[in-house]
Amino acid sequence: MEYRTLGRTGVKVSPLCLGAMMFGAWGNTGEESVEIIHRALDAGINFIDTADVYSRGESEEIVGKALAGGRRDNVVLATKVHGTMGDDPNEFGNSRRWITREVENSLRRLGTDWIDLYQIHRPEEDTDIDDTLGALTDLVRAGKVRYIGSSTFPASQIVEAQWVAERRGRERFVSEQPPYSILVRAIEQDVLPTCRRHGIGVIPWSPLAGGWLSGRYRAGRDVPVSRRAEMIPSRYDMSLPGNRRKLEAADALAELADEAGITLIELALAFVIRHPAVTAAIIGPRTMEHLESQLTAADVVLSEDVLDRIDEIVPPGVNVNPADGGWPNPGLQPQARRR
Asked: Which residues lie below 8 Å from residue 235, measured CB to CB, with a gap of 6+?
């Protein structure tokens, strides 16, 4: 497996990053989760991404268990902070108070003394980015965190964070983790070019579009039932026009993959990891079968003809369903628009 440099850090990571969101109560609660992690490491993946909020810490605990016994040192370990972790109104967000408290919880759950990449899971309008970067900088200087990153930040806030870091002497975000797939291409307009200009590594989440590009969604078949679909109906409810458009696009892409002699999963992952701005795509297997079906994508190179056909099915810079953007822009909420 080829390895790539994460931004300008000099750290080498695999083009597939093992996402751990489906390990724990949100997905696989059995011992198979640890086996999946070990299989991914054996296959050459050296990059694992999780978050405190995934199954309220259970995912981090599973990752920590899998890396115990000598595997930790060879893994670039990433986790995130921001999501709600309790009933107290301050057990959430991007404040110094919460970050300095929650990083200790993540270190304990992961069973490690340091986190390679500590990421802010979402932007937060009522917290000064300088306060957030200040807290993260202190963690880097204390040796608890090696690098810091953002997730699902719009281009304007990515630039603002870089500017604040330079002006205030803070550690800068070395990576951004946006939603990106053939069905969710809006970041091609601004986020990806912005990251390239600033030397920021890009680690897209949901390259299979939340399962829509797994091959399970085809015209004429029953729509799969899943816990994820129940949790996020805006992205799966087939009564919504955006999701009907996704089904049409997924069906056309499946036919294209068949013509190209590859699986739809390979097509979808190869599309993401071959973008010049992308460092690694986050895969999120729930089962060993899922993992095995995704590992082969690291070696697939799409031809110009196939890429052109993809652009015909889903134009560059377009989200087929706007609800898949991952972050509701507060500037578009009614309270921000009403005079």
From this structure: 210, 229, 243, 321, 323, 324
Token digits for 42? 């054996």
* Per-position DSSP letters for 194-241, written without gaps between them: HHHHHT-EE--B-TTGGGTTTT---TTSPPPP-HHHHH-GGGT-TTSH
Cα distance between residue 40 and residue 292, in whole Å: 9
Distance, CA of 323 to CA of 316 (rounded, Å): 17
pLDDT single digits (tens) 137-182: 999 999 999 999 999 999 999 999 999 999 999 999 999 999 999 9
Q: What is the pLDDT of residues 296-307, one digit of tens each?
A: 999 999 999 999
Q: How confident is the model at residue 34 (pLDDT cuts 50, 70, 90)?
A: very high
Q: Burial, 296: exposed, middle or buried (Cβ in 10 Å; 0-12, 13-18, 19+)?
A: middle
Q: Which of 293, 289, 287 is nearest to 263 (CA)?
A: 293
State the average pLDDT for the chain: 95
pLDDT single digits (tens) 183-213: 999 999 999 999 999 999 999 999 999 999 9
pTM over 0.90: yes
The label of the residue with tokens 């967000």 reads 93
In sequence order, the 6+-apart residues with CB closer than 8 A to the CB of 36 are: 18, 23, 28, 285, 287, 288, 291
What is the C-alpha separation between 136 and 325, in angstroms, rounded? 26
Other CB atoms closer than 10 Å to residue 239's CB: what's the count? 7
Maximal C-alpha separation, the chain: 60
Q: Which of 54, 180, 217, 236 is catalytic?
A: 54
Any catalytic annotation for residue 236? no
- The answer to whether 111 and 67 are in contact (CB under 8 A) is yes
